[in-house]
Design brief:
The protein is mostly helical. The chain contains 8 helices and 2 strands. Helix 5 packs antiparallel against helix 6.
Amino acid sequence: VDLIMSVEDEFEIEVPDEAIEKIKLNVENFNTSHIIIIATIVLLMFVNWLIETLKWKNLMQKEYPLSWGEAIRATLLGVCVSFILPNRMGDFVGRAFAMPKNYALKGGITTLVSNFSQGLITIVVGCVGLLYCFIIEKEYSSYTTYYIIGLILLCFTIILMLIVYFNLSTIISFFTPKTDSSGPVIPKSVI
């Protein structure tokens, strides 16, 4: 609360009294169960980064065998740059930047393919959840027609994404410039 008062004085802004009262109430009600929840969230954040690092290390194994330090550096650099750039583009840029120059394009393409496949899995599992709500639970409302139209569009999107995913090498070779007579620069992990 003292911090809020000093910010009010420093920047000449006024914080409503009810906001200050809510902050005081939250501070008074804060207990050890909240600390356990916050600690669990922070721990799971590190576990997520570790799993992401393992995924990145395995994806790049055929192209450029990464040490654990390099994989962790690339993953965390991707996370940091993602805070700055919109729409998860920082992950692509950060990981490409962490790779040696002659592997940056391959690392970037591998990151894009990895993010695409992870998004595809998320959409498929979400679609299964929606189907569960409609078919098993019979959760209908006045918006059921809109949900069915949305589900049909979602299924169409999934089919289109699957077609793109399983034809990635063709699509990437179309957009990738040829470096020599051996063909386009396509990461082996994509093919």
